[in-house]
Amino acid sequence: MTAGLLASEQLMKFSDIIDTALTQQRELLHAPDKRKSDKPLRSFSVREVSHALRVKYNSLRQYLNTLPGMPAGTTEPGNRKYFTADEVNEILSVLYAEGKIGDERMPRRKPGDAQARLVVYNLKGGVSKTSLSVNLAQFLALRGYRILCIDLDPQASFSDMFDVQADLDGLPSVYDVLRYEDDSGGPVPITEAIRATYVPNIDLVPGSMSMTEFEYETSASFRGGGDGTPFHRRITDALELVDDYYDLVLFDTPPHMSFAVIAAVYAATGMLIPLSAGMLDVVSLAKFLELAAGTMEVVEQHQDKRYDFIRFVLTRYSASDPAQLQLSSFLRSHLGPAMLRNDMVSSTAIADAGNTMNPLLELDPSSFHRKTYDRIFESLCGIADEVDAEIMQSWGREPFERESR
Ligand SMILES: Nc1ncnc2c1ncn2[C@@H]1O[C@H](COP(=O)(O)OP(=O)(O)OP(=O)(O)O)[C@@H](O)[C@H]1O
Ligand SMILES: [Mg+2]
Predict the structure, then answer these.
(1) Domain boundary residue among 101, 129, 144?
(2) 3-state secondary structure of 339
(3) Whether 68 and 175 share a structural domain
(4) What percent of the chain lies above the pLDDT cut of 70?
(5) Closest ligand 1 atom, CA of 158?
(6) Residue 78 and residue 131 share a domain
(7) Would you say residue 243 has pLDDT above 90?
(8) How many structural domains is the chain composed of?
(9) 143 shares a domain with 43
């Protein structure tokens, strides 16, 4: 259908075809009566709440019945109680107020605690950066963290997962926050680009294709353009305005080096490096780390940078695959405690989430085999526990050790 055209015209034609098809698809998917963000997040069983808040199941049931101010929840057939994410947060507040849990399980900053800023970082494509970020954000939000997510990938898949589409809906994006002042305008305060999501405790600065502009503008700033604020400080400076509002800022990054990524690395206080369990991934990891070290050196020319933590997490891990098992023990023997103890298991449910845009906490557990659901839930919850412990430690608190159920 494109024969006879110049190669550039052929490619452009294909681009137009896909673009139009995607726009139609999106309009269908996001028609006003179909948007998933119009529906609230599902409710959670007492067992899920007990696991998320790390309170023993029987104790939680007793607290729910006896402590004043506990939300009533909704009773569903079978006499089971379910709680919305907002109610889970109310439960957390009552447990804390009544002294049933201490500071180690109350993820709120106190005066003097620095905002935790976590960058999920690996220049390799497809290693689960976005899937991990989305699920981690949801698990941490459910246990009380007030989170601001910042999507730095021009492909904006993280924002898609939360049904916030800056380009489609004409909303300000992270580009508008980071952009340079020029004849066409200037940066907007981050508060103008922050969108609440349908998940309580999660706000988002959406990604956008125009982030590529930021790269051009930054290059131009080296030749004397720009508005004076160097590129690496632009995220840090923008965040000042919301420093009091969030306990955690989470960055999802693109699989390529960019000035925006360097600015996130500069703003971050901790780093999580997802790594899929293939030998080629491990080979490229060494190169990536060398490059990341080089990036850090650039950042350190401006200011010494000390992270609270840098941890690796194995993603799409399947312990039943002998090659992966071997690779996992190889990595653990060399990287030791820098590797998270919990792996992100490989699962079609997580893969499907990428297609259906539904992270685990949005799926209906009854549509799975119970064991399958528990395996994924425990994998993601375990990762959240370890990241939580790192943040708590950065706030000088004793991390909470989960007792087995
Ligand atoms: N634990 C998992 N089990 C099975 N499939 C997974 C898992 N994690 C991610 N996937 C799938 O792998 C693909 C890549 O995942 P994802 O988009 O999260 O990676 P990424 O590192 O963000 O990619 P990119 O580098 O393009 O941003 C997606 O199709 C996703 O659904
Ligand atoms: Mg991604």
Answers:
(1) 101
(2) strand
(3) no
(4) 94
(5) 22
(6) no
(7) yes
(8) 2
(9) no
- C-alpha closest to that of 169 among 21, 23, 358, 38: 23
47 plus 195 within the same structural domain: no
| Segment 245-277, tens digit of pLDDT | 999 999 999 999 899 999 999 999 999 999 988
- Ligand 1 contact via 128 beta carbon (within 6 Å): yes
Lowest mean pLDDT among 126-135, 250-259, 348-357: 348-357
What is this structure's pTM? 0.91
Element spanning 315, H or E = strand 309-315
Task: Find the angle CA(75)-CA(78)-CA(79) to the nearest 5 degrees.
Answer: 40
Looking at the fold, whether 207 and 356 belong to one and the same domain comes out as yes
Q: What residue type is assigned to position 242 of the chain? A: V
On the 0-12 / 13-18 / 19+ scale of CB atoms within 10 A, 77 is: exposed
97 lies in the same domain as 132: no
- Does 97 share its domain with 115? no
Say if residue 45 is exposed, middle or buried (CB neighbours under 10 Å; 0-12, 13-18, 19+): middle
- Report whether residue 161 contacts ligand 1, using a CB cutoff of 6 Å: no
Q: Which of 120, 128, 320, 344 to mutate to test the pocket of ligand 1 (most atoms within 8 A of CB)?
A: 128
Taking the alpha carbons at both ends of the chain, their separation in whole angstroms is 61
Q: Which domain holds residue 143?
A: 109-394
**How far is the centre of ligand 1, averaged over its atoms, from the C-alpha of 47 (Å)?**
28
Residue 33: pLDDT band with limits 50, 70, 90: low
Overall size of the chain counted in residues: 405
| Residue whose tokens read 């910042």 | 150
Residue 119's DSSP bridge partners are 251, 271
CATH code where residue 353 lies: 3.40.50.300
Distance of CA 323 to the CA centre of its chain: 29
354 pLDDT tier (thresholds 50, 70, 90) = low
Average pLDDT on 44-66 reads 94
Locus of tokens 């503008």? 217
Query: Per mean pLDDT, which range of 312-316, 322-326, 392-396 is the poorest?
Result: 322-326
| Dihedral-angle region of residue 316 (phi above 0 means left; psi in -120 to 50 means alpha; beta otherwise) | left
- 384 residue type, one letter: A
Q: What per-residue confidence (pLDDT) applies to 156?
A: 93
